[in-house]
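Holo prediction. Input below; ligand is L-homoserine.
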Amino acid sequence: MRRKLKLGLFGFGCVGQGLYHVLHETHGGVQAEIKKVCVKSKNKERPVKEDFFTFDKDEILNDPEIDVVVELIDDANAAYEIVKTALLRGKAVVTANKKMLAEHLEEIYELQQKSGKPVLYEGAVCGSIPILRNLEEYYDNDLLNSIEGIFNGSTNYILTKVFEEKKTYADALKKAQELGFAESDPSLDVKGYDPKYKLVIAIAHTFGLFIQPENVINIGIDKISDLDLKFARENNYTIKLIARSFRLDNRVYGFVAPQFIEATNPLASVRNEYNAVQVQGAFAEKQLFIGKGAGSYPTGSAVLSDLSALSYDYIYEYKKLHQADRFEFSNELIVEAYISFDESVKITINDFEVFQSGYAAHGKQYMVGQVKLSKLKEWSQADGVGIILAPNSQFIPVKTSSKQEALLA
Ligand code: HSE
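Structure of the complex:
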């Protein structure tokens, strides 16, 4: 039986307006009425009449008639306070705030247990792609080996425009902002934070681990040079920003980094603001989900789907948390990468676990080889170093000494 929902909405930006639209366009599906919208700015022109809005969050949080809070604001700290208060006041929550969720997921899980009220957030991970409920429900019996793909629409849009239309990076980023794909601070997109937040959320539903975002390494696309693009074109590669997490034995690894992608890889044809998520199960093997990862209506549709799920009292059970196999998160990994750097940067072949090749051209040095993830993190924070993973990079756990192994046992 579906319940009728009374909503209090926070935020009326790109996704908030998308939800408003899809909610009014859906016929016979979700029965949900927005009672009030809480917004920050008093002076913005809005396409809906004024008495629909409030500037006081308590007008929603204290209203006993409102049973669902939909949180679609930009500020992760304010969003966290809203979500926490709403749950403690007995309201269900739908949110698309990936930063807030990634930073507080364990606490939000506990608050749900305590309050008995659900928090749903399909729109926070890869926009319109229905990945979280699939991880929870469809993949509840199959032990998952990996989840990876394109988790950020803006950077995929930028890379597509740069590759296919030879637009400059700056022009493509500006367009991604105009289209409402980019975060209000676009460095979250281009430096790989946004896909990292999404990966952190996905890891909880894939492997049952709550990880703090600062423990996950993110390397962005902001240091990709024209020479890297030229190298990619000459080798019939494209470049995608890939978020990935996988398990090897009892360890789970996860990181975000750009990667050269061969033309035959299905991810090569995922263009513009589309995202892709590839899940690999022990039995089902590989499955690929593709859909719009950013934008007003696609994300609004994911929020709508969460509302629909709430109307029949759906709640994430965090099934992987209760799985028999327990994993430990680790960054002790060796990957294969192309490193480009200015002559002023001190990187030598001794920094590589296995050095494969290197050359110098146009004032830049290139080195290719197997390198520890911790080294990549260090280099990603330095100026003038570009990092792109090799197309079919191997992922090799760092060997631990027998003393360390004894400590881990
Ligand atoms: N800035 C995000 C992206 C929006 O580009 O993917 C959707 O989460």
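The mean pLDDT is 94. That is the main takeaway for now.
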